[in-house]
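Is this the right way to post structure tokens for a design question? Let me know if I should format differently. Anyway, here goes:
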């Protein structure tokens, strides 16, 4: 029997659960020894099922980072190609948050698009704006239909900067609402990450647009199957969070998946809630990962699960006043082996060509090898980002040893 296909057990230790989760997320497989191929990149994203998008660019925009963490230094232009080129295997939609997803999963989110049209739950504002501005929204839709893909700024209709959500213009509010309802999709991104909107039937492959729409219950079951495959082991709350599934119906769908064998109930020592494991999950005895993780990486984006799994209370402090921050502004945890052993507050100084470690902190269980391995990963990241060097500032209990390791 392969060493990572151990017999099924009804009780897992915390370490076993952690290693199953890391293997499911792609951290138990060595990085490619040669240049990363497009096939490897797409296969990884298909494994994850979803990659979160975020506009913060203090180090790198977050959607570039999960592939770097798992594959090493790959071409960021390759991700842009598979995400936004004319012919591509990915599409954008609201899945975990704003996300990149495999094209094949588009029909699985049509229930959410319908909820947005109907104004169900979180989507009340979308439906209300459309109802109150029906003529305007229709004009936006017809303009894009006749002129082709356009950004909100190119539409040049409606009030600017005074309407809608977050101070958006009427045009931006309209296109985002149409994006959430599925009547528009992302044709491409340009400039400073500006979304360009197009009609799905003009942007997405015909086979996807014409694919049957599954029943809501069927779509939910498949999304839960994708979630457990991506997580390896999870509680019901973890599973719901992965694609931000509604509470209503979740208990029934999971019971159905247990009955069919897609979810196997297990007890994880130290976890208070019932857990489920993917019956096909790898169960490695050892994981020797080495990776810096985006704050929005799939492995750690659900902070409750991160704390339960790794014993680390991790919070992003972007919106915390500087004087009240504990670890820094844009902090990346460091995965070493099967543990989170450190965290670093990073900033890319692109003009100077330097990756700045503004603060560095070790977890209590960090070893003497931690600063050396972290320094290796920081240098790899700097090169991947096109920066020439790494500079470690003197803030944090790991700073001295890390600076020495970076300099050696």
């Amino acid at each position: 029997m392969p060493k990572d296909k151990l017999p099924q057990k009804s009780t897992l230790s915390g370490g076993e659960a952690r290693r199953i989760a890391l293997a499911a997320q792609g951290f138990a497989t060595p990085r490619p020894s040669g240049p990363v191929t497009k096939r490897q990149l797409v296969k990884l994203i298909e494994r994850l099922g979803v990659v979160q998008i975020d506009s913060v660019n203090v180090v790198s925009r977050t959607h570039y980072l999960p592939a770097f963490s798992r594959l090493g230094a790959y071409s960021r232009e390759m991700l842009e190609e598979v995400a936004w080129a004319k012919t591509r295997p990915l599409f954008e939609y609201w899945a975990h948050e704003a996300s990149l997803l495999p094209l094949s999963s588009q029909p699985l989110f049509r229930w959410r698009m319908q909820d947005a049209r109907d104004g169900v739950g979180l989507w009340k504002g979308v439906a209300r704006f459309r109802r109150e501005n029906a003529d305007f929204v229709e004009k936006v839709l017809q303009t894009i239909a006749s002129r082709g893909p356009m950004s909100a700024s190119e539409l040049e209709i409606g009030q600017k900067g005074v309407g809608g959500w977050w101070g958006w213009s009427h045009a931006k509010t309209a296109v985002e609402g149409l994006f959430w309802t599925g009547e528009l999709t992302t044709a491409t991104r340009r400039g400073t990450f500006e979304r360009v909107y197009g009609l799905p039937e003009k942007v997405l492959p015909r086979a996807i647009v014409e694919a049957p729409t599954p029943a809501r219950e069927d779509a939910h079951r498949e999304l839960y199957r994708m979630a457990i495959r991506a997580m390896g082991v999870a509680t019901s709350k973890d599973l719901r969070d992965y694609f931000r599934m509604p509470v209503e119906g979740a208990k029934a769908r999971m019971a159905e998946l247990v009955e069919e064998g897609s979810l196997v109930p297990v007890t994880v020592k130290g976890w208070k809630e019932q857990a489920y494991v993917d019956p096909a999950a790898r169960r490695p005895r050892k994981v020797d990962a080495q990776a810096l993780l985006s704050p929005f990486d799939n492995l750690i984006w659900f902070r409750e699960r991160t704390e339960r799994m790794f014993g680390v209370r991790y919070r992003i402090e972007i919106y915390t006043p500087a004087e009240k921050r504990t670890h820094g502004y844009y902090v990346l945890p460091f995965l070493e082996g099967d543990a989170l052993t450190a965290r670093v507050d990073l900033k890319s100084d692109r003009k100077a060509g330097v990756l700045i470690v503004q603060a560095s902190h070790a977890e209590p269980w960090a070893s003497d090898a931690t600063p050396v391995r972290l320094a290796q990963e920081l240098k790899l990241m700097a090169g991947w980002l096109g920066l020439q060097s790494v500079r470690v500032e003197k803030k944090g209990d790991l700073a001295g040893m890390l600076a020495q390791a970076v300099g050696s």
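Format looks fine. Someone answered above. Worth noting: The first strand starts at residue 11 and ends at 12. The radius of gyration is 22 Å.
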